[in-house]
Write a structure and sequence with these properties.
The protein is α+β, with helices and mostly antiparallel strands and 256 residues long. The chain has a domain at 1-88. 25% of the residues lie in helices and 39% in strands. The protein contains five helices and 14 strands. The protein has helices spanning 3-22, 25-43, 54-71, 75-78, 138-141, and strands at residues 90-93, 99-105, 112-113, 115-122, 128-132, 148-157, 160-172, 175-186, 189-192, 203-208, 215-218, 223-231, 238-250, 253-255. Helix 2 (25-43) runs antiparallel to helix 3.
Length: 256
């Protein structure tokens, strides 16, 4: 093989091998800055910033969420710190580093805040998947999945690792809420536990804006506690009773 052909051969080999050897940091940086740029572009058109072109915001929103679902479903992205994006949205990771949650306020305008949340997770096969956690149908379904996730706790239920996600949101009308949701990684899916709370639904603590709802988990005791609110006789708002409810894990369910 003459020197010209040898040089061409080595160049072609470098194109294929180079990214695998040297490409870890550069793709992460590019992904981080690209997602950050798209998020900033999207949020600058949000109604909360006084922008009123719904079609443009809707298009940017769908594009950004589409990127979250596709670009984060890769092994390379799972190891990216995404420091720049983390300055714009809330990114938290489980202790075992198998689950990472991305959530943010969509600045939808008004007192009802639409919150978006996505989970990136690794299965036992090493595959990376992304699942949207909020339904985008809160009004229709009367649910409270639209929250910014602030805490992830690992808990054992039936000898299997589960993830307790605690978040905050507001549906307006002078109220806000905190929620506790429980998930586990089953095969290639992130599955919500519908039997982990006695009610068969997520734990939701709602209160008037004047009072902070609180949901906490104590790893030492394995207990979930939250403050209690009831509708005031004259105010029409959910007011504190002063009582703290403790939920203990019994037979695979958190219950009083």
């Amino acid at each position: 093989m003459n020197s010209a052909k040898a040089g061409l051969f080595l160049f072609i080999i470098a194109l294929f091998i180079g990214p695998k050897i040297y490409g870890q940091e550069i793709p992460c940086d590019k992904l981080d800055m690209s997602l950050t740029s798209d998020f900033r572009k999207m949020i600058s058109k949000a109604f909360g910033h006084g922008y009123e072109n719904y079609e443009e915001f809707d298009s940017l929103q769908k594009s950004f969420k589409g990127r979250i679902l596709s670009d984060l479903a890769t092994k390379t992205s799972f190891d990216c710190k995404l420091d720049s994006l983390n300055t714009e949205i809330r990114i938290i990771q489980s202790e075992d580093k198998l689950l990472r949650v991305f959530s943010w306020d969509e600045l939808s305008g008004g007192t009802w805040h639409d919150m978006a949340s996505f989970a990136q997770f690794k299965t036992t096969t090493g595959n990376i998947h992304v699942r949207q956690l909020d339904t985008e149908r809160e009004v229709e379904l009367s649910t409270h999945t639209d929250v910014v996730i602030n805490k992830i706790h690992q808990i054992k239920i039936g000898h299997k690792t589960h993830y307790l996600l605690i978040g905050w949101g507001t549906h307006g009308a002078g109220h806000h809420h905190m929620t506790a949701q429980i998930f586990s990684i089953v095969d290639e899916k992130l599955v919500k536990c519908t039997t982990c709370f006695e009610s068969g639904e997520d734990l939701v603590v709602e209160s008037a804006r004047s009072y902070p709802p609180k949901i906490t988990y104590n790893p030492a005791t394995g207990e979930i506690t939250h403050n209690e609110f009831v509708e005031g006789e004259n105010s029409g708002f959910l007011e504190p009773t002063g009582k703290v409810i403790t939920l203990k894990l019994k037979n695979g369910k958190f219950q009083q």
